[in-house]
């Protein structure tokens, strides 16, 4: 009897997984981007940084969230309650992130934020909007050994498939 319900559960999992839309990608200057980011590229590349903006730049799974929280704590003089004011993606917008239902895009959030702003990106430096360089913004690269990042990706993928 237990085996029959396991089969039904497995079938249901496969059925629901099949409904998940796989992301599509496009290439920009030799870099693979999510199609939604590619489609919004003109808005991203024309983003106007402010001189006191801080850019946290990293590859995915390189410890970006930790760095975001540390920088936010510094900006709030270590006041943990102030750092709980909103989820991380609202306090430190993801520059190239497109909007989802009930979640504004990174550009929308940034347009409403007062300076100084802390901004996250996973774009390679050559695709970062020029205004960051023209305005001499502070850039905090967040790096991790490649083997550690790959291990983090694999761990994430293993959790997603189980």
Automatic annotation (TrEMBL):
What's the Enzyme Commission number for this chain?
2.8.2.-
Q: Name one GO molecular function term.
A: sulfotransferase activity
Looking up InterPro entries in the UniProt record yields: P-loop_NTPase (IPR027417), Sulfotransferase_dom (IPR000863)
Record-linked Pfam families? Sulfotransfer_1 (PF00685)
Against SUPFAM superfamilies, the record matches this protein to: P-loop containing nucleoside triphosphate hydrolases
Q: Sulfotransferase domain: from which residue to which, for each copy?
A: 51-139
Mind listing the UniProt keywords for this protein, alphabetically? Transferase
Q: Which family does it belong to?
A: Belongs to the sulfotransferase 1 family.
Protein name per its UniProtKB record: Sulfotransferase
Native organism is: Latimeria chalumnae
What high-level taxonomic lineage is stated for the organism? Eukaryota, Metazoa, Chordata, Craniata, Vertebrata
């Amino acid at each position: 009897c237990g085996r029959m319900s396991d089969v039904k559960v497995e079938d249901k999992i496969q059925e629901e997984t099949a409904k998940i839309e796989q992301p599509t990608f496009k290439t920009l200057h030799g870099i693979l981007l999510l199609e939604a980011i590619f489609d919004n590229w003109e808005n991203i590349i024309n983003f106007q940084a402010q001189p006191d903006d801080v850019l946290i730049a990293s590859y995915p799974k390189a410890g970006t969230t930790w760095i975001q929280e540390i920088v936010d704590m510094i900006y709030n003089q270590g006041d943990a309650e102030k750092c709980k004011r909103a989820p991380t993606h609202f306090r430190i917008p993801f520059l190239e992130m497109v909007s989802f239902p009930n979640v504004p895009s990174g550009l929308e959030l940034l347009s409403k934020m007062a300076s100084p702003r802390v901004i996250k990106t996973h774009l390679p430096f050559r695709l970062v909007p020029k205004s960051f360089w023209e305005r001499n913004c502070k850039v905090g690269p967040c790096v991790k050994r490649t083997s550690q990042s790959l291990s983090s990706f694999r761990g994430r993928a293993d959790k997603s498939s189980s």
